[in-house]
UniProtKB/TrEMBL annotation:
Skewed-composition ranges (Polar residues): 1227-1238
Keywords, ordered alphabetically: Membrane, Transmembrane, Transmembrane helix
A Pfam family hit: START
PANTHER family given in the database record: STARD3 N-TERMINAL-LIKE PROTEIN, STEROIDOGENIC ACUTE REGULATORY PROTEIN-LIKE
Lineage: Eukaryota, Sar, Stramenopiles, Ochrophyta, Bolidophyceae
InterPro entries attached to this UniProt entry: STARD3, START-like_dom_sf, START_lipid-bd_dom
A GO cellular-component term linked to this record: endoplasmic reticulum membrane
Gene Ontology biological process: cholesterol transport; vesicle tethering to endoplasmic reticulum
Regions that span the bilayer: 802-823, 835-854, 934-954, 982-1005, 1012-1030, 1078-1099, 1111-1133
GO MF annotation list: cholesterol binding
Location of the region described as Disordered in the Swiss-Prot/TrEMBL record: 1224-1244
Record keyword Glycoprotein present: no
Listed name of the protein: START domain-containing protein
Domain START: from-to ranges: 484-623
Length: 1263
């Protein structure tokens, strides 16, 4: 098969020849590897020739294709030529494969065009050999010729060439131009007249996705009759450049970037021709809509320097192209007339400003539905205005200069210049902030993935208020400037119709008045809202500023109705620049906010912000509440804004979470993506924009080319088969990044929390672990993204919940059906139905009782809500949803969400699954006729048990917090996804076979003599409890208050855990807090011994309900399956954790071991204060010394992570400290003067004594 390619490359002929001749270069070898090719190697090489071997991939079911060829080059008069032919040399690639030798011939010519450009022509003949279809040959030939595109991209200099072209046009525009012909003068005069008419013509304002671009639609602007397919429109925007610079940029139609954009935006064809120094001929073909013929425009463009501060460009229809370019068939000739004006404006913060106005008249001709015309008009006008604006945008520089100017004013401001009225307003807003806690009712927290933002709403005096507490990585002065500068570029919103600064009653640097009009919502269902607000700031102390915003009345913007009279809260504007708006009404809404900005550690700021909005107009309350919630999320925008301007070296954990919020945020209005764009395009565009605007991401993207495409794949969250990648960080390619990013979706599908998903993902790829160790913010960013992805597209979680809930529900239904079967049986087996029913009811009652005891501090309503989930059998679903939301441990519970989920599943196993399985096995053996449905029900019960055991073990082990706090126990599940799957299946099989074996053991003993079964189980239980008591490990780790309650819980939980381990061999219960590794393995051996013992007893002394041969077959089958799964499990887990299955360490010993092993105070506190105090009784003196030594630093917030430490200290400990300290330590952890009367001089230094006494007292009381 033959193929040809021709292209022009931005390099010399010599450079192009070297690129082609160096077949095994690093870049080309990497590209070949990414395409899936097996190998390429140099066999022989000289200055003018080389012999190369390569093995290329072929689509299934074809074999690999091997090519061995010789390449020779030669210099000719025009440049160089190169030839390639196949040779028969044998090559050792260092690996074996099954392939077919292919053949190829290539001829390439490199012709000089200029010193920096050459033309490359490629001709290739390809023969894959064998029986290969033509389409496969064609596909491989296209792939082979794609090296031409790779060469063009490698030497691409489009930006440099376009820059030279613009410089030439700019020089011509600055110098002027030659005299125009009469025809050209007539065209320019017509353009100027149309531009003037547009200033006074009636128009209809169009919605625009760019807040800085204003769009207008006219009925007509010239003398021609308007047709349905004729579009008159205008786009106007301020550009941060000189008029001649913007005009030269726009007039470069033959530029390479303009040509690329044309085809990327759906263009079909495009040709340009420079007719003179100031005119250009321009032809383009575009597709309009599916089912409608393409439209062609042929235009003549020219520019004119109207004055030193004004330039004009006009495009009008022309026939000058007709001789050079024949009219194409099946293309409709359209008409267009465009006027572009560039007028100089005053500089903005030393940045030149130009008002760019585009006026266009477009006749599409033919029969086109008006809906298409109405849709295309705003899209086209927005594209014109946004493209020019973004090409010169210097918004960050302007906003930064405005903030710096404001901060300079802060330094010289007279802080005593506030009037009595202004001080009253400030005091009132401070009172509102206090009232949020004291007088608020119905406070509700708003869920946010960012742990550095707390949002909540409340109702004060029947008005909705919201509060935000956030940490911002910027100085208080910079944050105050952010709030103050309401006219900053970054504050522009697409829903803002008008924003004007009004003159305040008293001129001052600390007061400003704004008039803002917000667009009508829901396509006119709600009227426009206008706000007249007074902004004011004040320095409260050396480290705290206050910014307030309150509604006021202003003489320049009175509340008016249609006739000019006052009308309550409504305004009826008559016209908007000459256009009658009819019945449009504006309501005067009210907006309050107060932001307290306090200097934090490391130069950051702590911002407490309250806000309230009353939209007026008799709207329902939920709308006001939704507006309040929307405004509260500006706290995230505040964080993102300052995070975007930080350097990569300054990034910390908080910046990672802020960055995650930016990456996951929906496209903001004005981002430039049309509504017709797909979700994937929108995600790609969003990430691309963020990598341009964020300083740290831009630097990271330049350093690692894979990072941006990887993040695109992460956020798309499309479940695809994952592939492992063992490359190091610096060796990753774009394809590797896409593969790694796409694999996160698989981790999200197998985990219930973002942290565990990301933990699995990091463990799978060495490069990502290297990334996380190099950048401390990377893992928090990915964890936050994973949490949000689980919340928004939680198909992984949903699949797990559906599978788990379905198995539980089907198991429940099967139990009922089996019970009904025995109830209606003629063999008088109604007692089995009674036992099954009693077991289910008793199990649910026990389940409800235990959950109620654990969460006894909950309100009655919350408690009944939890119990309802248990009764309907959907408690696992509710727990999984709680874990996925990323919620912390509630104050009314002793258990964290993930622990409560595990606890609930264990109770379900103990109270429902295990008894039901035993009863079904018992009924099945006694039945005269063993129905298939009854057998399936028993197997389903075992499968459900095994699945729950696997879920518990998997979630507990892969939890990042568990692996961080207990690395000695958690982490045995391997990092590789395929190995994880095998381990997960092994746990299911192991749990299912053990529960069947143990149930058979109990049933066999009961059928011989019930006392034998009871004695065996009692003996095992007593032995276990005695073992725990002798080792001083009887008390359970849950930190219950009171010795009696703690002992009662210990007895119940120890019995439950022992029975669950007997029937399931759950790997999680090898934890020293539970059975311990040694006893877990001993228990497993005893269980298997008991199974064989019960089978012997039954076959020797039983009544023969089941034949002896069938008994031993069944026992041996289960034993072989269990042994195989268990050995596979041990072989697949990490070898470093095998010893944990035989370790004899007790719970209190493990607590002490972790306390001594950790160096972080936060981890030490998590070890001590989340377990019962008896676990650290033996080291209470060390604990007292540690707390006393570090308390001063903690209470003064000098130790990082102190908030987490304070949050983990039990209330009982804090209450003892407060009781003995009498004010030395408050509930917030702040220090103060003692009021105990002990000489009245007890300072912070005395806290050590108190803490040591408290810790020592706790230890003694528990001894």
């Amino acid at each position: 098969m033959h193929g040809r390619a021709e292209l022009q490359v931005d390099c010399s002929a010599e450079s192009a020849l070297i690129y082609w001749f160096d077949y095994c270069s690093i870049s080309r070898s990497r590209t070949s590897s990414e395409e899936g090719n097996l190998a390429r190697t140099i066999i022989e090489q000289s200055d003018r020739s080389s012999i190369v071997g390569t093995v290329k991939t072929a689509p299934w079911p074809f074999y690999w294709r091997e090519f061995v060829f010789k390449t020779v080059w030669k210099r000719v008069e025009e440049g160089y030529i190169l030839g390639t032919v196949t040779v028969d040399d044998k090559v050792d690639y260092g690996k074996t494969f099954r392939g077919v030798r292919g053949r190829t011939k290539v001829f390439v010519s490199f012709e000089r065009v200029s010193g920096r450009s050459c033309k490359v022509r490629i001709t290739q003949v390809l023969d894959l050999s064998g029986l290969v279809p033509a389409f496969v040959m064609n596909m491989k030939l296209q792939l082979s010729l794609s090296v031409a595109e790779e060469m063009r991209e490698a030497f691409e200099e489009d930006d440099e060439i376009d820059k030279l072209g613009r410089m030439c046009i700019l020089r011509r525009m600055q110098l002027g131009k030659e005299e125009c012909t009469e025809e050209e003068e007539e065209i320019i005069d017509k353009a100027l007249k149309m531009s003037e008419r547009a200033k006074h013509a009636e128009y209809r304002a169009l919605d625009c996705s760019d807040p800085r671009v204003s769009l207008k639609s006219f009925t007509h602007l010239d003398d021609d009759p308007s047709e349905p397919s004729v579009i008159f429109g205008q786009a106007e925007v301020v550009v941060d450049a000189l008029p001649e610079v913007a005009a030269s940029w726009e007039f470069l139609l033959e530029g390479r970037k303009a040509r690329k954009n044309h085809f990327n935006e759906g263009g079909i064809d495009r040709n340009t021709y420079n007719a003179s120094a100031y005119t250009i001929l321009y032809q383009q073909v575009r597709k309009i809509a599916p089912g409608i013929q393409h439209r062609e425009w042929r235009s003549k463009g020219m520019w004119k320097k109207v004055s030193d501060d004004k330039y004009l460009i006009t495009y009008s229809d022309t026939a000058d192209f007709d001789e050079m370019l024949p009219i194409k068939p099946n293309v409709v000739r359209a008409s267009a007339h465009s006027i572009l004006t560039f007028e100089r404006l005053p500089d903005n913060m030393n940045v030149p400003q130009t008002k760019f106005t585009f006026i266009g008249r477009v006749a599409l001709n033919g029969i086109i539905p008006h809906q298409i015309v109405d849709k295309k008009q705003p899209e086209f006008l927005t594209s014109v205005g946004t493209t020019v604006r973004k090409s010169f945008d210097k918004s960050d520089r302007i906003d930064r200069s405005r903030r710096d100017e404001f901060k300079r004013k802060l330094e010289v401001h007279d802080h005593n210049s506030y009037t009595h009225e202004e001080n009253n307003i400030i005091d009132a807003m401070l009172h509102k902030m206090e009232a949020f806690d004291t007088k608020g009712s119905g406070r509700k927290k708003i869920k946010t993935p960012n742990s550095f933002i707390n949002l909540e709403t409340t109702t004060v005096n029947n008005t909705f208020w919201g509060r935000s507490n956030s940490t911002v990585r910027a100085s208080p002065e910079a944050v105050l400037a952010y709030f103050w500068d309401t006219h900053a570029r970054h504050q522009d919103k697409v829903d803002t119709v008008e924003k004007t600064a009004l003159k305040p009653a008293v001129k001052s640097d600390h007061v400003r008045v704004d008039y803002i009009v917000k667009k009508a919502a829901h396509r006119g269902a709600f009227h426009e809202r206008e706000f007249v607000t007074m902004n004011m700031w004040k320095l409260l102390d050396d480290d705290t500023y206050l910014h307030v915003c309150v509604p006021i009345e202003h003489t320049d913007k009175p509340r008016l109705e249609r006739g000019g009279k006052t009308k309550g809260n409504s305004v009826m504007p008559k016209t908007r620049q000459g256009l009658n708006l009819g019945r449009m009404v504006r309501h005067r809404a009210e907006y309050f906010h107060a932001a307290k900005i306090k200097r934090g550690r490391d130069g950051g700021s702590i911002v407490e912000w309250i806000v309230s909005v009353d939209m007026k107009g008799n709207l329902p309350g939920w709308i006001n509440l939704s507006v309040v919630r929307y405004n509260l999320h500006r706290a995230t925008s505040l964080q993102q804004y300052f995070s975007n301007h930080k350097l990569l070296e300054e990034y910390e954990k908080i910046d990672g979470e802020i960055l995650a919020s930016s990456l996951m945020a929906k496209l903001d209005s004005g981002m430039g993506v049309g509504m017709e764009d797909s979700e994937n395009d929108a995600i790609k565009f969003r990430v691309k924009v963020l990598f341009k605007t964020n300083e740290a991401l831009r630097k990271l993207g330049e350093q690692y080319e894979f990072f941006e495409p990887m993040m695109v794949k992460v956020i798309k969250n499309k479940l695809r088969p994952g592939k492992d990648c063992e490359k190091k960080l610096n060796h990753l390619s774009v394809k590797d990044g896409e593969r790694i990013g796409a694999s996160l979706a698989g981790s999200l599908a197998t985990n219930v929390s973002g942290s565990s998903s990301v933990g699995e993902w990091l463990a799978r790829f060495p490069a990502m672990r290297e990334m996380a160790s190099k950048y401390s913010w990377f893992e928090p960013m990915m964890t936050s993204i994973g949490t949000q992805l689980l919340g928004e597209v939680s198909w992984g979680l949903k699949s797990r919940m559906i599978v788990g809930a379905s198995l539980s529900f089907i198991d429940l239904v099967s139990d009922l059906l089996v019970g009904w079967y025995y109830l209606s049986s003629e063999d008088s087996e109604e007692h089995i139905y009674g036992w099954l029913t009693f077991g289910m009811v008793a199990g649910n009652i026990f389940f409800c009782t235990i959950i109620a005891l654990v969460n006894h501090s909950k309100s009655t309503k919350a408690m009944l809500y939890d119990l309802l989930w248990i009764i309907v059998g959907m408690k696992p679903v509710k727990d999984a949803m709680t874990v996925t939301s990323g919620s912390d441990k509630p104050k009314h519970s002793y258990l964290a969400p993930v622990v409560e989920m595990t606890f609930s599943k264990c109770i379900e196993l103990f109270a429902e699954a295990i008894p039901a399985c035993c009863l079904q096995i018992y009924a099945l053996i006694l039945a005269n006729e063993r129905k298939t449905g009854v057998i399936i029900s028993a197997l389903l019960a075992a499968l459900t048990t095994g699945f729950n055991v696997a879920i518990i073990s998997y979630d507990m082990d892969t939890s990042p917090s568990n692996r961080k706090n207990s690395p000695w126990i958690y982490g045995y599940i391997p990092d590789k996804s395929s190995h994880r799957t095998i381990v997960f299946l092994c746990i299911i099989i192991n749990g299912g076979t053990v529960v069947l074996s143990r149930a058979l053991m109990v049933v066999f003993m009961c059928l011989v003599d019930f006392r034998i079964a009871l004695s065996w189980m009692l003996f095992e239980m007593i032995l276990f409890l005695a073992y725990k008591a002798i080792r001083r490990d009887f008390r359970y780790w849950i930190p219950f208050d009171g010795d009696a309650a703690s002992m009662a819980v210990a007895v119940v939980v120890r019995v439950i855990c022992k029975i669950i381990t007997d029937f399931t061999s759950m790997p999680h219960f090898r934890h020293p807090f539970e059975l311990g590794g040694f006893y877990w393995t001993l228990n497993l051996c005893v269980t298997q011994l008991g199974v064989f013992t019960s089978a012997y007893v039954y076959t020797s002394y039983g009544d023969g309900e089941l034949p002896d041969e069938r008994v031993w077959q069944l026992i041996m089958l289960l034993f072989v399956v269990w042994l195989t799964s268990f050995l596979t499990f041990l072989l697949m887990i990490k070898r470093s954790y095998v010893h944990t299955f035989i370790c004899s360490m007790a719970g209190h010993q493990y607590t002490c071991y972790l306390f001594h092993s950790f160096s972080s105070d936060e981890l030490k506190a998590s070890v001590l204060f989340t377990v019962h105090r008896s676990h650290w009784i033996s080291i209470h003196a060390e604990v007292a010394e540690w707390v006393g030594k570090n308390w001063d630093g903690w209470v003064n917030d000098k130790q990082e992570g102190f908030e987490d430490i304070k949050g983990s200290i039990p209330e009982s400990v804090m209450s003892i400290i407060r009781g003995k300290g009498k004010g030395v330590v408050s509930s917030e952890g702040n220090s103060g003067m003692s009021s105990t009367g002990l000489s009245g001089e007890r300072s912070v230094g005395g806290e050590r004594t108190i803490v040591r006494e408290v810790v020592g007292g706790v230890g003694e009381s528990s001894g």
